[in-house]
Amino acid sequence: MVADACRSPQTMTLNQNRPKDEFLRQLPLPEGAELSHLCYETRQKSGEKDFFNASLRYLLVKGWDTFEKTGQTTKAEDLHPAVFKAAMLMKEESFAGDLTTLCQKAGLSSSHLSRLFHRQTGQTLTDYRNQQCLERFQNIVYENSQKSILEAALEAGFGSYAQFYRVFRKKFQFSPKQYKKETSRLP
């Protein structure tokens, strides 16, 4: 699969038996979350061999491209523990707290955590939280097309339909209704 998928000069390193470089990088949160979502979608289709194999090829090339664009080798220890904890809390489906609760659980004041989170991840706390909620919404709609858009948005962690709609339109440039309609057509 690697030999078949990695033919370009940019991906040739993946074909080498023992490349000489160090290949551990911490991906920025948005790109890492996108790859995580693609992995989730691929896992959902693991019973469909052709789709699954094509998805694995895409993930391999997309992951490598993301790795290459990151450009900087970092270690997970470089991330402040409070930033890591805040990111993990926002990623959890069970977390529905506000910024004050999040900061208390992370152990920093809201202004300090906000600045530190933005400096280390390149995203604001709000943008990261919205991204996590959007991913949960997409997974909920994909798994249960019978749920209304409002039910899925609230279950995903949005506080209101208005907030969800604003975030969704900003990210995708089309309405949640259009998204649900298109998603329901998928096999």
Describe it for me?
This protein is mostly helical and 187 residues long. It folds into 3 domains: 2-17 and 24-70, no CATH class; 79-122; 124-181, Arc Repressor Mutant, subunit A (Orthogonal Bundle). The chain contains 10 helices and no strands. Helix 7 (125-143) packs across helix 8. The mean pLDDT is 81.
General form: flat
How many helical stretches?
10
The figure for the number of domains is 3
Contiguous runs where pLDDT drops below 50 for at least 5 residues = none
- Beta content comes to under 5%
Order of helices and strands: HHHHHHHHHH
Radius of gyration: 19 Å
Structural class: mainly alpha
What is the total tally of β strands? Answer: 0
Mean pLDDT across the residues is: 81
Keywords:
10 helices, 3 domains, Arc Repressor Mutant, subunit A, mainly alpha
Could you give a quick summary of the protein structure above?
The protein has 187 residues and is mainly alpha-helical. The chain has 3 domains: 63 residues, no CATH class; 44 residues; 58 residues, Orthogonal Bundle (Arc Repressor Mutant, subunit A), CATH 1.10.10. The protein is built from 10 helices and no strands.
